[in-house]
Amino acid sequence: MSNTSSPRAAAGLSVNLLARPLVERLLADADALGLRVRRDDTGVHIVDAGIEAPGSVAAGLCVGEICMGGLGRVNLRSGASAEGWPTWLDVRSSQPVLACLGSQYAGWSLAATKEETGGKKFFSLGSGPARALAVKEKLFAELDYRDHAPCGALVLEVDRAPPKVVIDKLLRDCGLAPEALTLILTPTTSLAGTTQVVARVLEVALHKAHELGFALADIVDGAGTAPLPSPSADGVEAMGRTNDAILYGGRVHLTVRGDDDAARGLARALPSRNSRDHGRSFAHIFKEVEYDFYKIDGALFAPAEVWVSNIDSGNTWHGGAPDMELLQRLWLQEA
Question: Could you give phi then psi for residue 88, rounded to 5 degrees?
């Protein structure tokens, strides 16, 4: 059977061109979405989705789809009382490898020193389709994918606009004219920021599958869901809530082909409960390791629950379980 999921098979797809209508809609509906849009001195579109602008959940949904290069859908759903939380995000992609790893993954490290900025140092991880123009990460060699679109969009989880030295780097590495680049700024403390991070529930599963050595070309479809918490004004707490939503409430269904043993092994190894750090809030863990991500057990970065269906055999395996009681203790107060 042919594989339509791998970027090699999807080489004719441009994540930036597919995302462009979504970017145009974001710009056109900026007022309704609570956004502020401006052009910098060079002509780059800067979209404030929660720094000085209020932003919105609706904006976060659109940003989530932009991040997936137009190859995924992100929807809001009201949860049943049995699910333990009132609002959930549903994510789906029929090109999950390209959508999640070739576009959505926050893997492009962007930094500038105090000397370069003339003030505060700057750091952010860039996510979204413009990554595939610059291909600065080793991951793109594995994916065997590069985009060549004349436009691009990048999402930065920051609380201030990037300095000129970073914007110049983005234009140079992406090979874009300034007016062709859109930068979307989504601090996690905002509604849009929290929403677009939780919308990464499927991407987290794809990244974990990659880390486990599962053949990416054998992943042909993916869907995920996760509870949407209220943002926090505290940056560490806000980041903790978005991570906890996926680690303890995220549920993912991957459709694969190939060997049954590999599919069963993925269902067993992928869930976050395999981590020694499982069972505590992410914010608490992060503070405990003195804010050093690299000291956190990598096995924790995974959805709580997973199903893996093998379309070649018709078998489905299940692993993990959500911990909504933990999330309710962290997020909920009775009136």
Answer: -130, 155
Residue 121 amino acid letter: K
pTM attached to this predicted model: 0.94
Residues 6 or more apart in contact with residue 303 via CB below 8 angstroms: 201, 204, 205, 208, 224, 226, 246, 247, 250, 251, 252, 270, 271, 272, 320
Per-residue pLDDT of the chain (335 residues; tens, 9 = 90+): 334 455 555 668 999 999 999 999 999 999 999 999 999 999 999 999 999 999 999 999 999 999 999 999 999 999 877 788 999 999 999 999 999 999 999 999 999 988 888 888 999 999 999 999 999 999 999 999 999 999 999 999 999 999 999 999 999 999 999 999 999 999 999 999 999 999 999 999 999 999 999 999 999 999 999 999 999 999 999 999 999 999 999 999 999 999 999 999 999 999 999 999 999 999 999 999 988 888 899 999 999 999 999 999 999 999 999 999 999 999 999 88
- Kindly report the number of other CB atoms within 10 A of residue 2's CB atom: 5
In the block, residue with structure tokens 């590495």: 173
